[in-house]
Amino acid sequence: MTERIVVKIGSSSLTSDEGGLNRDRISFFANELAALQERGYQVLLVTSGAVAAGFRRIGYESRPKLVHQKQAAAAVGQALLMQAYQEAFEAYGGTGNGVAQILLTRTDFSNQRRIKNARLTIEELLRQRTVPIINENDTVATDELHMKFGDNDTLSALVANLVQAKHLIILTDTDGLYTEDPRKNPAAVRIDRVAQISEDIMKIAGGAGSSVGTGGMRSKIEAARIAMRGGVPAFIGRVTEPGDLRLAVDGYGRGTYFDTSLHTLTMKKQWVGFHSQPMGRIIVDDGAQKALLQGGSSLLPVGIRAIEGDFHSGDVVEVTNTSEQTIGRGVVNYDAWQIKAVAGLSTDEVRRRFEVSRIEVIHRDDWVTLS
Ligand SMILES: Nc1ncnc2c1ncn2[C@@H]1O[C@H](COP(=O)(O)OP(=O)(O)O)[C@@H](O)[C@H]1O
Ligand SMILES: N[C@@H](CCC(=O)OP(=O)(O)O)C(=O)O
Predict the structure, then answer these.
(1) What pLDDT, in 10s, does the model give residues 356-371?
(2) pLDDT over threshold 80, residue 128
(3) Which residues bind ATP (predicted)?
(4) Where does CATH 2.30.130.10 sit in the chain?
(5) In the CATH scheme, what is the code of domain 278-369?
(6) Are 213 and 227 in contact (CB under 8 A)?
(7) Residue 138 marked as a ligand binder
(8) Residue 122: which residues within 8 A CB-CB, separation 6 or more?
(9) Alpha-carbon gap, residue 369 to 357, rounded angstroms
(10) pLDDT of residue 281
């Protein structure tokens, strides 16, 4: 299979704080991407910048905060963004076949049919040497039920897993993850390589640095974590000079590399953990939490404290501890009403009272840790 590279460019790299697109930057990035294509890679771009590109044009003084104003600005800005990329790729020439717009929401990823359709479309575009340019579909994305990406970092990681990319390259205005936000502490030091995203790594990653960016370093690290779990190595950093993107792909970029050796999940587990929409919630006690997180065990009825939602066997549910912290997700082997009947009972007791084909409420093969 031809190797695929997913590149994500944040608003802060494409626009100014005052709003509007920086054409020179767009043309620079288009050249960098087209050069990768010329080297034989299939290239996908996840780009932000629609709101930042559109808010002045539509008449707002600064980046709007109200949802419908942001969506209106994005609708104007998305057209400007695509036009700018189209012109920039055309000006490069080369052997590529232009660009294509793809707008996705989180809901699309949790529906197997929709996401399969999106994947097939993307694969056809790549076969035709066209660069899919992907952004969140801001007009329909909603905050409810966490169905909105908000920033595009998570979206880029899900896309990288979807197309089984060789690399996810997240470009921003800082050259990688520092020991502290370098805007706040100039003495902060860059971390060159991360093998595992620990609590400490999460703690040092702060919020957005500019008035146009949204996710900050935290959402980029989250994205790296999703990509790593899907077996896709990630890079977070900056490219400013011609040839920098190629250096980043080759392992010599100015930024932080996130390795994958410890983290590969099967396609099924990727779907359970990151694409599916949980249909309910199971609250477990401390013993079950420990067994799931440290013992690599399945979830048994005895550890269940309570459940929420009317789910069925085969659905994905979220599992939380008694402090409401999410610890993971899994596919249940019972309907919700059946779990109510067995919750808290020992395995012997369940077997004595009911005829069950599988004792595990969630088998460890169908479980993904998210804490
Ligand atoms: N530990 C950290 N290391 C590097 N950057 C950090 C860190 N914590 C917070 N940041 C901030 O994250 C910003 C990049 O995120 P963001 O503004 O959302 O950019 P983008 O628009 O590219 O997604 C940087 O400008 C920086 O100020
Ligand atoms: N979909 C939105 C993304 C918003 C955003 O700011 O994202 P990012 O710059 O990646 O933190 C847009 O195109 O404006």
Answers:
(1) 889 999 999 899 988 7
(2) yes
(3) 8, 172-173, 214-220
(4) 278-369
(5) 2.30.130.10
(6) no
(7) yes
(8) 44, 102, 132, 162, 163
(9) 25
(10) 96
pLDDT band for 168, please (50, 70, 90 cuts): very high
220 is in an annotated binding site: yes
150 confidence band (pLDDT: 50, 70, 90) = low
Task: Write the residue with the smallest CA distance to atom 4 of ligand 2.
Answer: 151
Query: Nearest 5°: CA angle at 238, between 72 and 35?
Result: 90
Task: Please answer whether residues 321 and 356 qualify as being in contact, where contact means their C-beta atoms are separated by less than 8 angstroms.
Answer: no
Tell me, using a 6 A CB cutoff, whether residue 328 lines ligand 2. Answer: no
Question: CA–CA separation, 258 vs 93, rounded Å?
Answer: 33
Q: Tokens for 158?
A: 């899900």
Q: For residue 47, how far is its CA from the centre of ligand 1 (angstroms)?
A: 16
Tokens encoding 262: 């410890």
Looking at this predicted complex, what is its ipTM? Answer: 0.95
Best mutation site among 214, 221, 222 for ligand 2 pocket (most ligand atoms within 8 Å of CB) = 214
Ligand nearest to the CA of 218: 1
Structure tokens given for 79: 């057209």
Residue 212 has pLDDT above 70, yes or no: no
Query: pLDDT category, 342, cuts 50, 70, 90?
Result: very high
Residue nearest to atom 7 of ligand 2 (CA): 151
CA distance 232 to 156: 11
